[in-house]
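User: Teach me something about this protein's shape.
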Amino acid sequence: MIEVKELRRSFGPVIAVDGISFDVEKGEVLGLLGPNGAGKTTAMRILACFLKPDGGTASVCGYDILKNPIAVKKSIGYLAENVPAYNEMTVGSFLNFVCDARQIKGKVRKQALDRVVPSCSIESVYHQTIDTLSKGYKRRVGLAQTLIHDPDVLILDEPTDGLDPNQKHEVRKLINKMAKNKCIIISTHILEEVEAVCSRTIIIAKGRILVDSTPKDLKDEYQCSLDSVFRRITKAKSA
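Assistant: First, the predicted structure itself:
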């Protein structure tokens, strides 16, 4: 459902993404790992059509990100690292605004709201303005707008950032529940999260893919925890 081919992106002299290629299929949850500045967020923004690559291309659900970015955006749910929202809106009005933007109307809208509000556990804040919410609740509202149109592909940048342990557990349960019927990419620094939800792991550093494997295979190969595997691989690259 996602095909990435020789994707490149620079910011001035800094090469953020350096010719990466990979595929992700339906039913896979890919954990995109790397140290800060590795190129994870840049790669995800390119796939979500928020940035144009300098070279290479990618397709999502058969749509080329350069030739048909609108169709790509309709096919995905993208949770950005910092989700934009209108602070003066209530949670309910914001989600209805997202429905307007995605042309979700009538009975289908009610069904969408009835699905995402409880699944993201935001019933108790539905009538509050967004500026009154904690970071964790804001993150859950961001996740709700990502899921509102029930997309086939999810691109989630730090989906549990700011959540308490109970909230993280609930979000991970939700991802596992959705995994069978969707194609999901997750960027995270939380290695336990990778083990909890990811069927596959790509580790990148300095814009290049270092490893493409499964969490279990990496631990078996290196005979240590995933956290230790991550440090060994990324430190070897920076040495």
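Now, about its shape. The first strand starts at residue 2 and ends at 11. Residues 165-179 form the longest helix (15 residues). If you'd like, I can walk through any region in more detail.
User: That's plenty for now, thanks!
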